[in-house]
Amino acid sequence: MARRPPRPHRPGRAEAPRRRQVVIVAAESAPGAASLVQSAAESTTHLAQSAAGSGTTGLVHSAAESGATSLVQSVDWLAIAPPVVVAAVALAVLVADLFVPAARKPLLGYGAVAGLVAALAFLVPLHDGDRSTFCLTTGTRACSYTADHFTLVIQALVLGGALLTALLSIGDTRKLPAGEFWFLLLSSAAGAALLPAARDLATLVVALEVASLPAFALVGIKRGDRRSSEAALKFFLSSVVATAVMLLGVSFVYAATGTLHLTEIAARLDDVPGQLSTLAQAGVALTLVGFAFKTAAAPFHFWVPDTYVGAPLPIAAYLSVVGKAVGFSGLILVTVVAFPSYADVWGPALAVLAALTMTVGNVAALRQSATRARSAVRLLAWSSVAQAGYLLVPIAAAAYAGDRQIGSTVAYALMYAVVNLGAFAVATLVARTHPGNRIADYRGLYATRPLAALAMGFFLLCLAGLPPGIIGLFAKVTVFSSAVDAGLGWLAVVMAVNVVIALYYYLQWTAALFRSPAEDGTEQPVTRHRTPAPLTVAIVLTAVAGIALSGAPQTVLRFADVNLF
């Protein structure tokens, strides 16, 4: 069969404009490379026009000129250094695990600690908080990564939480696959550090999943443990459902606005065509529901107690602080930055969720039996659900009184991270001699480990908001004030009632620390076991930080009066 002759060239065919439109859509879909792709589109159009009008000489001249000025995109490596350093150390630990003999496996843990310290050190030169990278060059200057004050504070929180988790884990990974454990922990920490800097929905979702997926494996890493496997399965299924709902909402928002950048979404949601308004509203609602799962807000909290009980204690501590910070950071970004025009919708919804979450968490914690196996971890799990309700209050208030209210959530999160990690550190210490980890096992702890008992009592009083835990009291007052300033008086009343409920179980546990071990007719073992040095360091660091913050609460509370964006 004879081949058809080639189709003659038609100078008038408008090939370049169609190609440019397709590339622009790609730029919106891949925000990290948006400016590069947009520049390529403009260069392609320019080259086609030059070729049509000026011949080969004009084509070469245009290629040289546009290629030198448009196709090279600069990356601010210092701005992205914290998550990049953690990710690089994670890969280094995974490769080193292949060559390090079994007797030297603890060195991998110390390498992970060093990597997290280095990532924290890279936050120091970024203290000005005015760096952005991966930005579009189409006049809007929308960026995919921004290292502002909000980003730096949350990155310090999650990296510090991961560092303390690593210290708790060094003496607790003897029966666990060391290389996989440290790789998963660092990978999750890298995603957690990336998320607060994300300023487009694609990067936000990717960072959220990078932080979550390794956490599934960490929860179920105790091979052969039925409770650990069950906890991992519940955590996985609930998180997958949340991600599916959130992705559906993100796709609806993108279809209605035509962009993934948060600032661009905020601008375009004000002017959505009538036929797309329902789609936009559904997208906003589904995105918020997905993040409600991630923050363990009621009624999406059912996975928390079983997951904390089944996971290794350091991982439970990690989820209670770093996992919560990841969820709340994403929720803040999509509500305050991307969806401010729908504040009349998400504001009341988050207020109701806050009231429901703190009530469910406190009532469930109140019902924990002191003699039930692992009741101490269950009480801390339900306490974390209640604390999530307090953290939601300022976000709901931001819908009525502006985004400055977000500082109250950040201040409370910093206080909660320090004292809750300290409580889990003491729980890890007690679990070395009492694997059942019941609340009753803490009775008389002062007689055998006075410093650990004093530290635990201080942490519990901070969570309750009582002196000498001044930082806990001030943080609760700040959250309470944000609700009052926003006109949410009913929510402030609900919070006050829940604080009173929480006093009972926090004080009951605190009192048990200083009772005589023989009062209930049972003798507790007095055998002293050597405490691993990293675990001691973790307890000391959290106790010193809590005491310092109680002595100078303005160090944390100043975030309540600063616009972090």
Offer a concise description of the structure.
This protein has 565 residues and is mainly α.
Query: Which strands sit side by side, in order, in the main sheet?
Result: 1-2
Beta-strand residue fraction? under 5%
Mean pLDDT score, rounded? Answer: 83
Count, helices = 21
Total number of strands:
2
Cα radius of gyration in angstroms:
26 Å
Task: Write down the overall geometry.
Answer: globular
Helix/strand structural class: mainly alpha
Biggest beta sheet summary: 2 strands, antiparallel
What is the element string, with H for helices and E for strands?
A: HHHHEEHHHHHHHHHHHHHHHHH
Structure description:
This protein has 565 residues and is mainly alpha-helical. The chain has helices at 15-29, 34-70, 81-96, 106-121, 149-170, 178-194, 201-219, 226-257, 262-269, 277-294, 304-310, 313-338, 343-366, 375-401, 406-431, 445-448, 450-464, 470-485, 489-513, 533-551, 554-557, and strands spanning 131-135, 143-147. A two-stranded antiparallel sheet has the order 1-2. Helix 6 (178-194) runs antiparallel to helix 7 (201-219) and helix 12 runs antiparallel to helix 15. 53% of the residues are buried.
